[in-house]
Amino acid sequence: MKQRIPRQKRRSQLAEVFGRLLKNRMAIIGLCVLAMLALVAVFANQIADYDTVAIQQNYTERFLSPSLKHPFGTDEFGRDIFARIVHGTRISMFVGILSVSISLTLGGTLGAIAGYYGGAFDNVIMRILDVMLAIPGMLLAIAIVNSLGASIPNMMISVGISGVPGFARITRAALLSVKDQEFIEASRAIGARDHTIILTHVLPNSLAPIIVQATLKAGTTINTVASLSFIGLGVKAPTPEWGAMLSGSRAFIRDYPHLVIFPGLAIMVVILSLNLLGDGLRDALDPKLH
Amino acid sequence: MSENNFLEVRDLKKYFQTSRGMLHAVDGISFSLKKGETLGIVGESGCGKSTAGRAILRLIEPTEGQIYFDGIDIRALNKEEMRKMRHNMQIIFQDPFSSLDPRKSVSQIIEEPLKINRIYATNRERLDRVKELMDLVGLAQRLVNTYPHELDGGRRQRIGIARSLALNPQFIVCDEPVSALDVSIQAQILNLMKELQAKLGLTYIFITHDLSVVNHFSDTIAVMYLGKIVEKGSTEDIFSHPLHPYTQALLSAIPIPDIHSRQERIAIKGEITSPIDPKPGCRFASRCPKANDYCGRAEPALVETGPGHSAACHLIESIQ
Amino acid sequence: MGGIAMHNEFAVEVKNLYVEFKTDYGVVKAVNGLDISIAPGKTLGLVGETGAGKTTTGLAMMNLIPSPPGRIVQGEIRICGQDILKLSEREMDKLRGQQISMIFQDPMTSLNPVMTVGTQIAEVIAYHEKVNKTEAMKKAKEILELVGIPAERAKEYPHQFSGGMKQRVIIAMALVCNPSILIADEPTTALDVTIQAQVLAMMKELKEKLHTALLMITHDLGIVADICDFVSVIYAGRIVEHGTLEDIFDNPAHPYTKGLFNSLPSITNRKTNLKPIRGLMPDPSNLPSGCPFHDRCDDACDICTSAMPQKAELSESHYVECHLFHSDKDKSVFGGTK
């Protein structure tokens, strides 16, 4: 007559991380804003027509202040800034997030290999990346995009690659602090293979600095894209892109500040949301903080 | 003779290349162990005892030597065969904090060996085994979803023990399993490990710096100093008539919690020297109260002085 | 023989000390009405497990409780007759090092890695005494010799010293101004047994030579037996039993003290079974009612769960805080359980 103990339900790890994330109000705000912007990007054409509003020049309506008709005002060519920001969402967010994903995947993998295996791997990988790091990121991006040809995908690739050394360094450092812990050895002792160990123990424990780097990098990427566009290597002229809008209207900052304020705000909101989400994610992944 | 030896280690060496020279962490140790017995490896920090424990399990690759486990030369196994072999040989770590992944819950930690080796087909069977293991080591079922940082050192060490038992090993290397714990908790864990040994017929190598624990726990003892075994024998022999001057000093240095049986301390000078490119000669000579000129010149071999009792000291050789 | 005797001047006297820490999870009651007194030249062993409040007690005696979150709620700490809780920050600074010193467990992090050992000791001297640089250095070298380090090594940096040697340097630094009390917080826990034996022997010699009162904070009853004159057993921030070395080792009274002894593997008799104390140290932010040990105690009865036991004096030098020893009730029942 053994008394049965009620079965303890076990929660899955993903559910637990998500549960913890939901408790973090700031992270949820970040997540909501990003989701909203994603919706805006998807339904950009329904919000404002691209051909007739976003890129159509209208010299009778230049430099208008914000009004009901033009919520964010109009620019030096009389284009509606609100519509341009809505359409810019597509490019800016897309380019920002995708470039960072490229840096993260490549840099993370290289850094993980270098950090986990050490020795010759480490030396070869890190010395090559050091050389890349010695070239200013902007210059590197210009060089790559120039050799590939100026287009939006090439620009994303070049910006992504120029971010690789930074991610590799951070991943490697984070890994080094984790890989000598005894639980890694314990995992090897029960017969785990290298890739299992890296994926289930090493990476989850070294994520925090990588996530922070990724969210910060997403912001600077949008700026880099703007700079590339400015020198003609990125987004071509009428296409609305936040960074290009910002840098293109520098000349009018004194007389018509709204030309600069709104694209700037848009960039800021994205970076802030990414940061909030990133911090929340980092905390949610760490059971010690709860 | 080696027929009934469950584990036999012959001339095991592990050297590390450092910038200052070759570090002889483990420098030719040999011993054997019968099934169900416990061998205590005793020594101070830096003597190579932990490296030896890991080299035996091939968690670090030995530089030289043979390891026979149940008749199988495990150094001859390839990576995949060794991985399978690990079912039989496990390790319990010293630090109940760093030996558990802080991001995994208790059940995830205990089920990891089962998952990796695909022991059970369904989640349910696996979870049942996890609960069985938790019962075995005295962890309450309600802790199944907790994380290591929420638990005290004793419970964490129980998790580590449950993980190492998951694959039904026959042999466990215990690397200072209780030295990070408070005395009252230490006693709980030692009792648990003894109980498990009796119940499951485990063979232990118990690595420790604490002589009173090893006295309580082991059948035979090997005393290590700078990568070498300087004395080995049954626990009774080592404690009642230690032969090597180092063993004698070590025994006399233990603070005994008894105010009536105080013994005279054998003071040994200085501190453990570096095992990098050791000079020929007895490694203990520079600290040994009995050393003479000869000790610094030739290395003493481990000589049997009685049944199962041997020591590596020139002075004993001359007595014999 | 000092102890509880009334007329003795104590080097240090702590009365009814309460220390708490405010955290996000509630108030951690680390020390709860603790009494300690040590006569000059005597050694008191403060024995207890992790989280019992040993280190907090030591820090409180230095008036070094980090505040916030910590706070000395009430109590009195007298060092050579002076209540240090009434001193200004500046007066306290002068007192530390000169009257009272503390050494910590980890010799690796207690020294500044970029200064020579001699300079670090000389700095302490220069702070407390009116001496010039050369004199301070000379004195530093003398104290190094005293702890068994050749004077010429004063020029070396901490990384050139081994763990045992570093701990000697730290002890030298603590003793250089000849304080009347030294608090040693697990000074040998990080060291190997043979090195520990060397350091303990040196400390024993020094305290006799310098007539320093020593508070030895440790979890190791072996060290207590080796070096102490008196023993206080601390549990959940209170001294549950106090007596001379003989009182505690020959006639342990408190069930916790007995439990500690039973948990130790014996070096002389290897076949004895270990009798661990069941359960865990109570959470200091959520202490149980009554006697804090009652839920781990095999002899606990009803009163233990409801009332905090008072001191019961077993002899002039020996007291215990346990209901089993109260003369007014139940003594006939429990008197023989010892």
Write a structural description.
The complex is a heterotrimer of chains A (290), B (320) and C (338). Chain A has 13 helices and no strands. Chain A has helices at residues 13-22, 25-42, 44-47, 50-54, 81-117, 119-134, 137-148, 152-162, 164-179, 182-189, 194-230, 242-248, 258-284. In chain A, α2 (25-42) crosses α5 (81-117), α5 (81-117) packs antiparallel against α6 and α5 crosses α9. By secondary structure, chain B is α/β, with parallel strands linked by helices. Chain B has two domains: 2-88 and 169-319, P-loop containing nucleotide triphosphate hydrolases (Rossmann fold), CATH 3.40.50; 101-167, no CATH class. In chain B, the strands form two sheets. In chain B, strands 6-7-8-3-9-10-12-11 form an eight-stranded mixed beta sheet, with helices on both faces. Chain B has a four-stranded antiparallel beta sheet with strand order 2-1-4-5. In chain B, α3 (106-116) packs across α4 (123-136), α3 runs parallel beside α5 (153-165) and α5 (153-165) runs parallel beside α6 (183-200). Chain B is globular, with a radius of gyration of 21 Å. Chain C has two domains: 12-99 and 179-337, P-loop containing nucleotide triphosphate hydrolases (Rossmann fold), CATH 3.40.50; 110-178, no CATH class. Chain C contains eleven helices and twelve strands. Chain C has an eight-stranded mixed beta sheet, sandwiched between helices. In chain C, a hairpin with a 2-residue loop joins β4 and β5 (82-83). Chains in contact: A-B, B-C. The B-C interface holds B 44-45, 152-154, 182-188, 190-191, 209, 211-213, 215-217, 235-236, 239, 249-250, 252-259, 261-262, 265, 267-268, 271-272 and C 49-50, 162, 164-165, 192-198, 200-201, 219-226, 245-246, 249-250, 259-268, 270, 272-278, 280-281.
